[in-house]
Amino acid sequence: NQQAQEVNAAAEQVATQAAAVAETSAAFESGVNADRWAAGDYSDGDAVWSPTDGLTYRAKADFTSVLDPAADPANWHNLNPVAQAKDEMARLALVFAANF
Question: What is the mean pLDDT of residues 49-67?
Fold first, then answer.
């Protein structure tokens, strides 16, 4: 029984990691095929690259974009992993500061 539980736990971990890889792969693919940003209507999940910084962004919802994605984090998710890591570290620092 213990081995079966360990195998099931490992299978769940593999499934979780596979889902994360699939999501990252989809983000990468959408970023590779991104168009240059221009003011206009965008749908949730649309990917564009910013002429300001050259990085790729994904729309967070359906909206009309009037600001370059680099200057509009409320509506655009930065697909650059370095920027994501920086944002996550800043978030964790705030959580740490609030709890300690």
Answer: 94
